[in-house]
Amino acid sequence: MGKATGFIDYKRIKEPERDAKKRTEDWLEYRLPMPEKDLTTQAARCMDCGVPFCSVGMEIKNGVSGCPLHNLIPEWNDAVYRGDFFEALQLLLKTNNFPEFTGRICPAPCEGSCTVSISEPAVGIKSIEYAIIEHAFKEGWIKPNPPEKRTGKRVAVIGSGPAGLACADQLNQAGHSVTVFEKSDRIGGLLMYGIPTMKLEKAQVNRRVHLMKQEGIEFKTNCDVGNDISLTELKRDFDALVLATGASKPRDVGLPGRDAKGIYFAVPYLTEATISQLEENGGSVLSAKDKNVIIIGGGDTGADCVATALRQGAKSIRQLSISSEPQKERTTKNPWPEYPRVLKNDYAHEEAKAIYGKDPREYLLSTTAFVKNEDGRLIGIETVQVKEDLAKQQYQEVPGTEQFYEADMVLIAVGFMGATEDIFENFNVNKTKRHTIEAAKGFYRTSEAGIFACGDARHGQSLVVTAIAEGREAAREVDFYLMGETFLP
After folding, report:
1. Average pLDDT for residues 53-74, to the nearest whole number?
2. 189 and 129 co-located in one domain
3. pTM for the complete prediction?
């Protein structure tokens, strides 16, 4: 690397952010760009380790370790250290179609497996990636790059999330004519409607979609495949189909009082909040303004609900998790290079603390019932404290710890249960026990000839970076299916 002792000489610098309290007054991105002088020293912290585990994407104990895209992280860190952002860009684009997305919203499993992180804070890989791609857009280096010739083959990609977009981008570069179908009114899937604008401004999504249009990809919105267009029609008009519809079936909580008015799933809530910002005069029906909000679920989606409710003017916010509070440092049961299951202060939690004076998260709490009034309107929830039984790998209620929490709105953010049922009905594809589309990794072929599947629809709920990786790999298999050979990476 450029500076062999950089990881000793320089400390990690956290990427700059806007003031936690002030930024809740708008919906703009909460991050700020890191000064170039800081970027070069941060890149210098990348050590000349024998095996760059940051680039070796794999699953360990059902968690992602390293980059699923196998990004050439040490190489572009070295280029940034030398001040050669153009070379860094070329290295970055070899493996990642959309670094402007991953540089913003990826939880950075690469940093969890960084060799420096064994004893020191990891190299700030995510902030460097973000800087490379934004520098490239600023300099005008990112331009439409349509294929030189077409193969005459047509491919339909169903779903425009990160997996679908990555697959479409790769297939287009291979010379196939690609049409992306999206049932929503805008392209992007969860990039558009599932991730709040303060993490990913929608102009960034539209910027990339515009480039893909210039490169020859056709997009069709407001098209519910199976209803607006049949499988028979698709097979007639296209040589191959790719299902990248996501794992959008939400996991519910079957508790007494679940039918109370005021209980919503997280993603529809986040979707309405985004629509209200994008549409003129678009007031969100699911507003948290002046309400006591409780979010059930301790993950990233729950945190996004916290940040959204803050900006809508919630009276109070609690985020409840049945799990115990993570440790601040790795334990012996979570060794490097596993994904670090440690306590992190998300942007949303920092904001809530700035507004309300305390962290909104509460742990080892199980919701037992929803309480409603005579009109069927939610007025609160009943909970009980639990303790972990590590031997039986389950939670046990602690008698005498029952408690009532006042609530006008409850948001359920406890994950997803695979693809929606209409996918299997409309496309005649087999499903797994996890309610995902049956298609072996590495081949991505479903039980129906000529139909492939990738992303969360095949894999189950995962990371954006995993979805992009799956989209790229599926594109390679589709290209081989169509042409008998493939040169896609």
Report:
1. 93
2. no
3. 0.96
